[in-house]
Write a structure and sequence with these properties.
Elements: H1 4-35, E1 39-47, E2 53-64, E3 68-70, H2 72-80, H3 84-105, E4 111-115, H4 118-122, H5 126-137, E5 144-148, H6 157-169, E6 173-179, H7 186-191, E7 196-199, H8 201-206, H9 211-226, E8 230-233, H10 239-246, E9 252-253, E10 262-263, H11 264-271
Parallel strand pairs: 2-4, 4-5, 5-6, 6-7, 7-8, 8-9
Antiparallel strand pairs: 1-2, 1-10, 2-3
The protein binds ligand C2E and calcium ion (3 copies).
Length: 276
């Protein structure tokens, strides 16, 4: 068609084509990256109100040899579209368990929080595989937290609950990441073996200046307190945000103010004494 509408469709299709081509390219390059050691674990500290280190969140980084660092927001969602995420997630878990075993061997009492891919979790092989990995590496499941997002609970809640219960029985903790931004239903908190709520950085960042965000943070803290859940606040960047939290009880802090994500080896040198 030569009319305007036709052109619009053509432009739209070509954008769609570009997005799809881009996804294919990222997928192919990610496969290569996994095989060639371009992926690296970074750690970001989590600290108690008194400043004591309690653990770290594991965050994957891709150092592309030509394009430089590619943020996880650009490749995790692409990987999640196919079983490539299973391979990627397996790599991340293996590295994280090896780190955990090293910390244990050195007598360092810290937890590691790993982001759980919904697609990996739903594989029937996931639980036996993870048990095998824990046995192979010697990593103590009691020091492992899995961060899940609320999207995981949408379908098949009873199967999800059964699987989470099985992992919980090993000693693994579950944390709800970005709490309050998804399909939150407080009923999940009763049904699932949740140990921790992670307040999304969107709420934390505006809490000192926006009464609505402050009220939401307080509501989340009240729920957590009544259900005896641990709370992590993420995305703390300013002293004002830290001050806002300081009068609100036991909240684990994570954010650039306390430490940026850093390569695991560097992080261990900086945060463990004597440095690992
Ligand atoms: P997330 O799990 O919500 O991770 C928190 C994100 O906030 C991280 O971004 C972290 O670097 C960033 N962040 C930490 N402190 C601050 C702060 O003070 N201010 C601001 N503005 N941001 C802060 P990152 O590393 O880019 O990760 C983005 C998302 O990618 C993660 O969100 C997670 O959904 C996913 N992701 C990252 N690593 C992994 C992984 O190893 N496995 C899986 N499955 N997903 C991952
Ligand atoms: Ca997370
Ligand atoms: Ca988060
Ligand atoms: Ca997030």
């Amino acid at each position: 068609a030569k009319d305007g509408g036709g052109n619009q469709v053509a432009v739209f299709e070509s954008h769609m084509g570009e997005a799809i081509a881009q996804s294919f390219r990222i997928e192919a390059e990610l496969r290569h990256a996994l095989a060639h050691g371009e992926l690296q674990l970074h750690l970001q500290p989590q600290t108690l109100p008194d400043g004591t280190l309690s653990g770290a969140e594991v965050l994957v980084r891709w150092q592309h040899p030509l394009e430089g660092p590619i943020p996880p927001g650009r490749f995790i969602p692409v990987a999640e579209q196919s079983d490539l995420i299973v391979e990627l997630s397996a790599f991340i878990f293996r590295e994280a368990c090896l780190l955990l075993a090293r910390l244990q061997a050195a007598g360092v009492d810290l937890r590691l929080s790993v982001n759980l891919s919904p697609r990996h979790f739903r594989k029937h092989s996931f639980i036996p595989w993870l048990k095998g990995l824990l046995a192979d590496t010697g990593a103590d499941p009691h020091r492992l937290t899995l961060e899940v997002t609320e999207g995981l609970f949408i379908d098949n809640l009873s199967e999800t609950a059964a699987r989470m219960d099985e992992l919980c029985a090993l000693g693994i903790h579950f944390s709800i990441d970005d709490f309050g931004t998804g399909y939150s239903s407080l009923a999940y908190l009763k049904r699932l073996p949740i140990r921790e709520l992670k307040i999304d950085k969107g709420f934390i960042q505006d809490a000192p200046s926006d009464p609505d965000d402050a009220a939401l943070v307080d509501a989340i803290l009240a729920v957590a307190q009544n259900l005896h859940l641990e709370v992590v606040a993420e995305g703390i960047e300013t002293p004002e945000q830290a001050t806002f939290l300081s009068t609100r009880g036991r909240i684990i802090r994570q954010g650039y103010l306390f430490g940026r994500p850093e390569p695991a080896e560097l992080w261990l040198q900086r945060w463990t004494t004597p440095p690992l």
